[in-house]
C-alpha cells in the first residue's frame, strides 16, 4: 500500500469520528500551548530583569555587607560597611568614577491625615548621577545638607501625587518617624525594579537619616546598607572590583573570609538569569506533563479505535493488506492527531504570549526552539503511544476478525 493512500485512509477515518478525534487532540493542544507559553513567559521575565538592571545606570558595582555564607545563614546582616569605607573608595580607587553610599529603611511617613509605610533612603548627592535618578521639580540632596544634618526630603513621584495631588509640594513639610522635614524636590518617575516600586520612596541626606531617623548602629562608624559604585568605563569594571576588594580587606584587617561582597551588574544579571532560567525549566517541565497525559489519551483512543474497527481490519487483511499496511495506517492516524494538536497548541501558545505581553510588563518573546521542540515532541508522542495500538491492529488474526461480521 502506498504511503499517500495510507495517509488518505487515516485522514478519512479521523474525519468519520470528528468529536473523538478533537477530544484526543485536546490534551496535545493544551500541552503544546502550555510549554510554549511557559517558556515565553520565563524568557520575558529574564529580559525584563536585564532591562531593569541596565536601567540602574552604566558600569555599576554593588558593595553589600556580609559574605555569601552570612547572607545564607543569618537574618540580620553584619554591620560591616561604614561611610568611611565609601569615602576611602572614592579617594583611593582610580578605576572608580563616583561612589554613592546609602542607608535603607522602612519607616512611617505622614502628611496631615495621610500615613503610609514606605522605603526611606539616606543618600548623598552622588546617588542621583550614579543611579541615573533625575529630579523633576526642585533640587536633590547637596553637600551642604549633609554637613548641616538638614531636615529636608526629596519625594518619589508617586508619594508626591499621593500626598499633594496637583498641588506644588515644594516648601511643604512631611513627617518621617515624627521628624518634620521640608520637601525640596520631586523625582522623575523611575518605575518598578524587581517588583519594588522606586517611585514610592523618599530621599533624605545620609547624615540626617543616620543621626535622626535610624540612629548610629555600628561601632566602627556611620553604618551604610549598600555602596553603589560607578566605574570609569566598561573596561574598568574588573579593575575596580579588584581594587575595591583589596582596599576593604586592608581597611577591615581581613585575613580570612571577607565581611563584604562586591557584585558587578554582570554578576547580578548572571544570578537573575540562573534563577529565571531555572524557573522557566521548572514551568516547562510542569507544562510538559500535560503532553504526556495527552499521549496517553492518544493511546487510549487508538486502542478503542482498534477494537471498534476489528471487522474492517479483518476484511482488509483478507483482501491482501499486510501487517505493515495496517501498522502504517494506525501509526499515521496517531501522528496526524498529535501533529495537528501540536500546531493548534502552538498557535494558542503564541497568542497567549502576546496577550501576556500586552497586559503585563513582560516582553513577548517567541522561542523558535521551544516551538520546534514542542511540535516535535507532540509528533513523537503520537508515534510512541501509537505503536502499541498499531501493533495490536497489525497482529490481529483475520479469521477471528471476520467471524464478527
Question: If you had to describe this structure to a student in words, what would you say it looks like?
Answer:
With 405 residues, the chain is α+β, with helices and mostly antiparallel strands. It is elongated and about 105 Å long. The protein starts with a helix and ends with a helix. The protein has 14 helices and twelve strands. The relative contact order is 0.19. The strands form two sheets. The chain has a six-stranded mixed barrel. 57% of the residues lie in helices and 18% in strands. The model has no long low-confidence stretch (mean pLDDT 79). The longest helix has 44 residues, at 265-308. It is a multi-pass membrane protein. Residues 21-247 form the MacB-like periplasmic core domain. The chain crosses the membrane at residues 21-41, 279-306, 326-359, 365-388. It is found in: Cell membrane.
Gist?
InterPro entries: ABC3_permease_C, MacB_PCD, Macrolide_Exporter_MacB. The protein is built from 14 helices and twelve strands.
List the helices and strands and how they pair.
Elements: H1 3-15, H2 18-55, E1 60-65, H3 68-73, H4 83-92, E2 96-111, E3 114-123, H5 127-130, E4 135-138, H6 143-148, E5 152-155, H7 157-164, E6 173-176, E7 179-187, E8 192-193, E9 196-197, E10 201-205, H8 206-214, E11 226-231, H9 237-251, E12 260-264, H10 265-308, H11 310-318, H12 323-359, H13 368-394, H14 398-402
Parallel strand pairs: 3-10, 5-7
Antiparallel strand pairs: 1-11, 1-12, 2-3, 2-6, 2-11, 4-7, 5-10, 6-7, 8-9
Helix pairs in contact: 1-12, 2-10, 2-12, 2-13, 4-9, 10-12, 10-13, 12-13
